[in-house]
Design goal:
The protein is of the alpha/beta class. It is 33% helix and 14% strand. It comes from Helianthus annuus.
Length: 354
């Protein structure tokens, strides 16, 4: 995009579907572990409200789609009435601030890692959580890996309905602007996509088309439920979280981007996006600062830039970028603690630091 002299590309307006954004600085979905029993708590409303800006775009932290999809009760859910009630005050606050707000959701927990036909994904998750010496008998894992995909999904669904869509029954009730399907970071969808972890020999493994089949089926189901104009997806083709790597990530992301165009989804959110594929809105994430984020937009390598740690520590990040003001330093030791204030809602705004 051609810049006017002195213009900051990150802070230029952008139209994403029906949303008229005033700038391109997006809050990335960040797990913060402040829920209680999968239910949002009042400090979380303050945390997100602090990071609003007029006509901005925030993506809430990952929410599980069922009681066996989540890894921790400190992470939010969206599958029960109590959980939905917990989200409502937060979304109501956003309605008043004219901020666009989507929730990231997906299948995160340990059961999802059993969909490989061997023990690759299971063992990598055990190692990640220092559970490789728990002494679980081989018969347990042999039983898990012998199940077909349809048998797995029958176990993991509610009343034979896709768990990714049944949780969306509540969407109109708590009025999110949309949802972001979590297809990244070594979780369930990502495991199907990557050839270094997916060793299935059925229609969901082997070729690129087969490995992408499950992700596209989930997108199709969600789009049919709520419409493509309310759906985004997060991908990490260049990463290898939980040993979920791919031998040709460039080809993977290009194939997915082309396939996703068919569903006319709102956006595609990619970690470490190197070049923007054609079609649709792309959000790039992965350790950006002000200068390289601005350059990525100016050079048409992305449309929007998602910030995690910088936004976590600087609730007024778009304003600081506008003024090229100093940034608060984040404290990594407080990222996942349960403290409702320290390292969560106590990062100072610019006006309190001058």
């Amino acid at each position: 995009m051609a810049n006017k002299e002195g213009e900051i590309s990150l802070l230029t307006p952008y139209k994403m579907g029906k949303f008229e954004l005033s700038h391109r600085v997006v809050l990335a979905p960040l797990t913060r572990q402040r829920c209680l029993g999968y239910v949002l708590q009042p400090p979380m409303i303050l945390y997100y409200s602090q990071r609003t800006s007029k006509s901005g775009f925030l993506i809430a932290e990952a929410a599980g789609v069922s009681d066996i999809s989540q890894t921790s009760p400190e992470m939010p859910g969206i599958w029960t009435k109590e959980q939905v009630e917990g989200w409502k005050p937060l979304v109501d606050a956003f309605m008043q601030k004219e901020e666009s707000f989507s929730v990231s959701y997906g299948w995160y927990g340990f059961p999802g890692n059993a969909l490989s036909q061997t023990l690759k994904a299971v063992r990598s998750r055990l190692r990640q959580n220092s559970l490789d010496r728990v002494g679980l008998g081989p018969s347990v894992w042999e039983g898990v890996r012998s199940l077909s995909l349809s048998q797995h999904l029958k176990i993991l669904t509610v009343q034979k309905k896709n768990p990714f869509t049944i949780s969306l029954i509540n969407l109109p009730y708590f009025r999110f602007d949309g949802v972001e399907i979590h297809g990244a970071h070594g979780y369930l969808i990502d495991q199907f996509l990557k050839d270094e972890i997916n060793d299935r020999t059925d229609e969901y493994g082997g070729s690129l088309e087969n490995r992408c089949r499950f992700a596209l089926e989930v997108v199709d189901a969600v789009v049919k439920e709520i419409g493509g104009d309310k759906v985004g997806i997060r991908l990490s083709p260049f990463a290898n979280y939980s040993e979920s790597g791919d031998s040709n990530p460039e080809t993977l992301v290009l194939y997915l981007a082309e396939s996703l165009n068919e569903f006319k989804i709102l956006y595609c959110h990619v970690l470490w996006l190197k070049t923007e594929p054609s079609g649709g809105t792309f959000i790039s994430a992965g350790g950006y600062g002000r200068e390289d984020g601005n350059k990525a937009v100016a050079e048409n390598r992305t449309d929007l830039v998602a910030y995690g740690r910088l936004f976590l520590a600087n609730p007024d990040l778009p304003k600081r970028f506008e003024l090229n003001a100093p940034l608060n330093k984040y404290d990594r030791s407080t990222f996942y603690t349960r403290d409702p204030v320290v390292g969560y809602t106590d990062y100072p705004f610019l006006e309190t630091t001058i």
